[in-house]
Amino acid sequence: MVIYNGKLIVGGNYNTMNGMPAHNIASWDGTSWDTLGGGLNGSVWAMTVFNGELIVGGNFYQAGGIGASKVAKWNGTSWSNMHDGFDAVVNALAVYNNELYAGGDFFHSINDTMYYIAKWNGTDWDAVGNDELNGEVYTLEVYNGSLYAGGDFDFDSVNYIGYWTGAEWKGCDDGVNDWVYDLTVYGGDLYVGGYFDQAYDGTVLNYIGRWNGSSWAACGTGMDDEVDCMTVYNNKLYMSGYFEHANGIATRFIAGWETPSVIKENYSDELVSVFPNPSDGKITLDLASSLPVTLEIFNALGEKVFLTNDFETNTEIDLTQFAPGIYFAQISFKDSQVRKKIVIQ
């Protein structure tokens, strides 16, 4: 599902919606369902909005009756193809650095070789890197300034999860030990769901884990079976899959996870003070330690909006570019972390 032009777009594998013909895609305006130009002749697996258009990927070869191999775009009134498309299913779409990326099980866009991931150049699809990904891409997500991919690939240190910096592919501390199905940003971390039970560094994860950009952490005791998809709602991360227990609790296929750093403040005035607070966006953090520390700022949804790894005491931080509201500053010392609530008026 995705929001486009103020409507909820629902893709999948179906022929009717609310009793009317709807071929694998339909829109909901809050009152009624509508089809999108005749729909698609195969299942929809991924959607995103790019340059004012709805981009749809899946396992189809026609959109609105015109040829469109595995990927197509909808401008609100009509469908069009995206050059030659791909030779196999598209599982994931993402926008990174104002460019559109597609991941899936494809090898080619007609005559061009591009293993499992490609970038749209405005008129055609280009390969990403030097064909390092050697297996299917299931999910794409942007985190900490890089494009992350998860799937069924393993090469060098990029095992089932890796990230594209814009110039090369890198691993996440050697990754995990089996398939990754979904990636979602929550509470400043990248959450990873799939069929794995541990990271290569030995951290036991049991189908769900957290990556903070440098190391892995578990989510309690995890699940008893695979996690297939995740989303954030009302400051909580929800996940679904084939599991029947989450952290030892009976859940049957859906569960919620809440990390304290998203909604709670850690009061440690002896270590950190913030002034003025509330403010117009320009604040000063006074630290008890003069050593450089890491400063991260999250919005009320737990999304990281600011990061510096070389922050020292009594330095003014300019947050005037952010909308008024509640934010959380997380200051990481060598052996501790402090979270302080910040109010921008």
Helix/strand structural class: mainly beta
> What form results from the Cα inertia axes?
globular
**On the 0-100 scale, what is the average pLDDT?**
89
CATH topology of the largest domain: Methylamine Dehydrogenase, Chain H
- What's the oligomerization state? single chain
Using the 3D structure, state the CATH architecture of the largest domain. 7 Propeller
Helix content: under 10%
> What order do the strands of the largest sheet run in, or round the barrel if closed?
1-2-5-6
- Percent in strands: over 45%
Terminal-residue CA separation: 33 Å
What is the CATH level 1 assignment of the largest domain?
Answer: Mainly Beta
The tally of beta strands, per DSSP, is 38
- Give a quick account of the main beta sheet: strands, pairing sense, barrel closure: 4 strands, antiparallel
The whole-angstrom Rg is 22 Å
CATH superfamily of the largest domain: YVTN repeat-like/Quinoprotein amine dehydrogenase
Q: How many domains comprise the coordinates?
A: 2
Unreliable stretches (pLDDT < 50, length at least 5) are: none
Protein model, in words:
By secondary structure, this protein is mainly beta. The chain has two domains: 2-262, 7 Propeller (Methylamine Dehydrogenase, Chain H); 263-344, Immunoglobulin-like, CATH 2.60.40.3080. It is built from one helix and 38 strands. It has one helix at residues 260-263; strands at 2-4, 7-11, 16-17, 20-21, 25-28, 33-35, 43-50, 53-59, 62-63, 66-67, 71-74, 79-81, 90-96, 99-104, 108-109, 112-113, 117-120, 125-127, 137-143, 146-155, 158-164, 169-171, 180-186, 189-194, 208-211, 216-218, 227-233, 236-241, 245-246, 249-250, 254-257, 272-275, 282-287, 293-298, 304-311, 315-318, 325-332, 337-344. Strands 1-2-5-6 form a four-stranded antiparallel beta sheet, with no helix packed on it. A hairpin with a 2-residue loop joins strand 1 (2-4) and strand 2 (7-11). The two termini are 33 Å apart.
